[in-house]
Design a protein that fits this description.
This protein is α+β, with helices and mostly antiparallel strands and 322 residues long. It has 9 helices and 12 strands. The chain has a domain of 104 residues: Rossmann fold. The termini are far apart.
Length: 322
């Protein structure tokens, strides 16, 4: 009798079962299981999909996914203690993390409320500072903040919007509740990883996706472009949008390229832009072309050497005033 073949990933003929796994209630919140081998309500198709795989298959798919992320260049740069830069893929778990409809409805409502509050807060501290006058926050706390930019005092952004794109980091505590760990309102990155991550997981569990009716996320680039065009002056029918990147040595350069390509707009660096007569223009082979909206992925302090850091080579002189 011929022996069944095995691989270093384990016996591929034996089914993978989570029926014997029992979550440690109290220490952490298990988002998949609520008891020994028992899926949480609504997540049964995912557990069945995992249990249907042969032993070693899940690990093989994990490794294949990590290889795909690396080959596509979906990486970030991390400096070690000695200052050496290492390129790494984003942490990836082939087992998807599912947020159920009722959970997402509540999260979405709360995050929108939070963004409105943060936008109103920024608008207030850079204008009337009613929050200081009402004694809610001491003024020194604002003025001494490393992120406070006195150059923006009195600034009136288009449509009164200060934070157009935000990165809200959520964590789930052992009580099962979601908490906000951090809000990044400056140059949040990582959405390209979200989109590619989704595509890889879809290929890993195609039947699970069909059974659970997972909401799509692939319309993000078109929504982003719509948001950016909304910020242009009313007189412009077809606003020209560009993505301003610090360059290929930036840790999120892949994302800058990815979003520009997905939106169908130009990816530019500081030397590609110039301010003429109070307007931003892009240098092209046909001469200067007017730019209406800049989605900048350059940090505040490097954006304009005439206003912020005078030694910056990543910014565009005069762009702040424009």
């Amino acid at each position: 009798m011929r022996k069944r073949s095995t691989s270093r990933l384990g016996n591929v003929t034996a089914p993978l079962q989570l029926n014997s796994y029992e979550p440690e209630n109290g220490r952490f919140y298990d988002e998949l299981l609520q008891g020994k081998g028992q899926a949480r309500a609504g997540l049964e198709p995912l557990l069945e999909g995992i249990n249907s795989l042969h032993n070693g298959t899940l690990r093989a798919r994990q490794q294949a996914a990590e290889h795909a992320l690396l080959s596509m260049g979906i990486t970030f740069t991390l400096n070690d203690d000695e200052g050496d830069a290492a390129e790494r893929i984003f942490p990836f778990d082939v087992v998807p993390r599912v947020i159920l409809p009722h959970e997402w409805t509540r999260l979405e409502r709360g995050i929108k409320q939070r963004q409105r509050a943060l936008n109103l807060f920024l608008s207030d501290i850079y204008s009337d500072r009613k929050i200081v006058k009402d004694g809610i926050i001491p003024e020194y706390l604002i003025n001494s903040s490393a992120e406070y930019l006195k150059q923006c005092q009195g600034l009136a952004p288009p449509h009164g919007i200060w934070c157009h794109i935000s990165g809200t980091d959520l964590v789930r505590n052992n009580d099962g509740e979601f908490y906000v760990l951090e809000d990044n309102l400056r140059c949040p990155s990582g959405v390209s990883y979200v989109l590619e991550n989704r595509e890889i997981v879809r290929r890993t569990f195609p039947k699970v996706f069909q059974a659970m009716s997972i909401r799509p996320v692939d319309d993000y680039p078109s929504r982003l472009l719509e948001t950016l065009r909304y910020l242009a002056a009313d007189r412009v029918d077809e606003p020209r949008v560009v993505v301003l990147t610090p360059g290929r040595f930036n840790s999120a350069y892949f994302e800058h390229c990815y979003l520009a390509q997905q939106m169908g707009v130009e990816l530019v660096e500081a030397p590609d832009l110039v301010v003429v007569d109070g307007y931003v223009h892009m240098r092209t082979t046909r001469g200067l072309t007017r730019v209406d909206v800049v989605y900048r992925r350059v940090s505040d302090e490097f954006l304009d050497p005439e206003v912020f850091n005078p030694d910056s080579l990543l910014g565009v002189p005069g762009i702040f005033k424009a």
